[in-house]
Design brief:
Blueprint lengths: L2 E7 L5 H19 L8 E7 L4 E3 L2 E3 L1 H8 L6
Parallel strand pairs: 1-2
Antiparallel strand pairs: 3-4
Length: 75
């Protein structure tokens, strides 16, 4: 049974966005493996505390992710 793990920085995505992530990742897996596996496809979302995820040798924060999403520099 497929298990899809998603790690996100806390407080970036809303509960509705997380619901959509779960739904769309399940749909993607089913498109490959077939509808029979929908009921046994697991999606697990884990949130990492702001600043506890490093990218390029620097901690990534919730605000930095929001800046990137808005098209601004991550600093």
């Amino acid at each position: 049974m497929p298990l899809i793990e998603v790690h996100l920085i806390e407080s970036v995505f809303t509960p509705e966005q997380k619901r959509q992530i779960i739904e769309k990742l399940t749909d993607a897996m089913v498109s490959v493996e077939g509808e029979a596996l929908r009921g046994v496809t697991w999606v697990k979302i884990s949130e990492v505390a702001s600043g506890e995820w490093g990218i390029g040798g620097k901690p990534m924060t919730t605000q930095a992710v929001r800046n990137i999403a808005a098209g601004r520099h991550a600093a």
